Amino acid sequence: SREPLAPAVVDGDDGWLAIVSWSVNATFFADESGITSANIDDAGRRDATPEISRAFGADATSTGAALGLDGEWAYRAIKQVGNYQEIYDTNLGAFLPRGTLNRSYVDGGLLYSPPFK
Q: Is 68 left (phi over 0), alpha (psi -120 to 50) or beta?
């Protein structure tokens, strides 16, 4: 099979590349933080760590401004499609076990998100 199995953008569209990359990072970060589409309203906003606040828009220093987006862009992405685990389960989970290496680093895998600063 030759279809793309990862996000791809047109060469030279650096703004869109940054948005796509940070959107993927947001799904990884939510997964490693235990934040899901079902609990993001509580876990992502109330009593959150500074990094969670920056990632999901409850902090004025959100990464959204650097991307040309509003402060709640990552919150909406997780609320609508879920964290990495939820996306995986929805699209591949019935056919392909996730495996150890395809997990968050906090669970012994290789996936991690750069810090949301």
A: left
How many Å separate Cα 103 from the centre of its chain? Answer: 13
Residue whose token pair is 């760590």: 49
CB 15 within 8 A of CB 68: yes
Of the candidates 24, 113, 55, 65, the residue with the CA atom closest to the CA atom of residue 43: 55
Backbone angles phi, psi at 35, to 5 degrees: -95, 130
Digit-coded pLDDT (tens) for 81-93: 999 999 999 999 8
Contact yes or no for 64/71 (Cβ under 8 A): yes
What six digits make up the tokens of 116? 């949301």
